[in-house]
Amino acid sequence: PTLNNYREVFVKNPFFTFTWNSLVVAAGSTGLALVLGLPGSYAIARFKRTGIALAILTARMAPGIGYLIPWFILFTKMKMIDTYIALILTHLIVALPLVLWVMIGFFEDVPAELIDAARIDGCSNFSAFLRVALPLVKPGIVATAILSFIFSWNNFLFSLIIAGFKTRTLPIAVYNFMSYEEINWGGLTAAATIITLPVLILSLFIQKHIVRGLTFGALKG
Question: Is the model's pLDDT at 212 over the cut of 90?
């Protein structure tokens, strides 16, 4: 057994910079997806917009490369390649449909009578959403936020194309151990282990919240 491969990971890569970049992009895309997705999913569930829900599902099923090419052309023209904003927006393509599709099911389980009672008491639609609906679906919000964060953390393709030297994320550290001449399997495995470890530890500690959140909408008393 040897630790040289793990040492090489930190010597060959600015690993702490990559970690910071991954945290910024994952947290930014997850936060933005929640800000946009929660009101959107509530509106779709409340007003029964099944056509929009199907469109979201279709967007979720589409391959990421189909969105990446237009984004790359746009960001190149706007000189936004190698910026956090560009990476967050591209990761939002994955996070937003996930938040919308999952949270629609949770908001559909919120009793309409509670929303109607809030409206009678003088709440606006947005106020009823904020004060009544959101507190009832907190388990779903937690589970969806965790899943969105993990998907963004593990995303390789968008970071490979959109990120430059300053904004490279952790999955790129694995790619750095591959070349045309050879593949450094020891370093590759060590980097993959280090990258996976934080997500694995996080999942172990919060798995009960994920299970509770994802089963919350399926259980009715």
Answer: no
pLDDT digits (tens, 9 = 90+) for 138-158: 888 888 898 899 889 988 888
Q: What is the pLDDT of residues 7-62, one digit of tens each?
A: 887 877 788 888 899 999 999 999 999 999 999 999 888 887 777 777 777 777 77
- Rounded distance between C-alpha atoms, residue 97 and residue 57, angstroms: 7
Q: What confidence tens digit (pLDDT) does each residue in 166-182 have?
A: 898 988 878 777 777 77
pTM: 0.83
Among the four given CATH numbers 3.40.50.1370, 3.40.50.2300, 3.40.718.10, 1.10.3720.10, the one describing domain 4-216: 1.10.3720.10
Written as six digits, the tokens of 96 are 């937003």
User: Where do we find the tokens 């953390």?
Assistant: 153
